[in-house]
């Protein structure tokens, strides 16, 4: 009997590991993606537009922020700036992960389109034991991307039948999720100051100026507050 090719065996093992690690996150992302599709449909986007947006942008937080501030005509520059601020963390995540991934520079450049907070965290954890292979990364990234794209489109279809999510309070679900996440953060002085300043500035700007400027204002205020509240040695 011929022995199995070690490369093929390892390749399959890496794919299985990626699918195993990402599976709980894929399941947890389903209701969030359905909600996004329903909220986007309530804002006037068609199921096709929602699906294309999810496929090309693939950034849940940025997409929710864009939909939350969506008006007609859409303020393209403001939305782009807010998205840049929200996703700026990917620069640091990519720089942290790049040396630990076994891929060429071109492959990293292309495959990091699938970079998410969850994929980054799982890869960093795996890198503590072994290098992150392209097969492992692709299994996680592609499955999570397909899951988000499909179910956000399905959410838009279902949302068109259910009507305005505000009727049943579903529009607040993602806000509630963020509140829960923030509540789980560390209770250090820097964290509390950052959250308080960011929320306060965003609320004031939303009240006196209106959307979508509160998103960018809150983000910038939070960044400034975090820097000023950090210990002096951490800033040097």
TrEMBL record:
<protein>
    <submittedName>
        <fullName>AzlC family ABC transporter permease</fullName>
    </submittedName>
</protein>
<dbReference type="GO" id="GO:1903785">
    <property type="term" value="P:L-valine transmembrane transport"/>
</dbReference>
<feature type="transmembrane region" description="Helical">
    <location>
        <begin position="135"/>
        <end position="162"/>
    </location>
</feature>
<dbReference type="Pfam" id="PF03591">
    <property type="entry name" value="AzlC"/>
</dbReference>
<keyword id="KW-0812">Transmembrane</keyword>
<dbReference type="GO" id="GO:0005886">
    <property type="term" value="C:plasma membrane"/>
</dbReference>
<feature type="transmembrane region" description="Helical">
    <location>
        <begin position="192"/>
        <end position="209"/>
    </location>
</feature>
<keyword id="KW-1003">Cell membrane</keyword>
<keyword id="KW-0813">Transport</keyword>
<comment type="similarity">
    <text>Belongs to the AzlC family.</text>
</comment>
<feature type="transmembrane region" description="Helical">
    <location>
        <begin position="22"/>
        <end position="41"/>
    </location>
</feature>
<keyword id="KW-0472">Membrane</keyword>
<keyword id="KW-1133">Transmembrane helix</keyword>
<feature type="transmembrane region" description="Helical">
    <location>
        <begin position="168"/>
        <end position="185"/>
    </location>
</feature>
<dbReference type="InterPro" id="IPR011606">
    <property type="entry name" value="Brnchd-chn_aa_trnsp_permease"/>
</dbReference>
<feature type="transmembrane region" description="Helical">
    <location>
        <begin position="215"/>
        <end position="230"/>
    </location>
</feature>
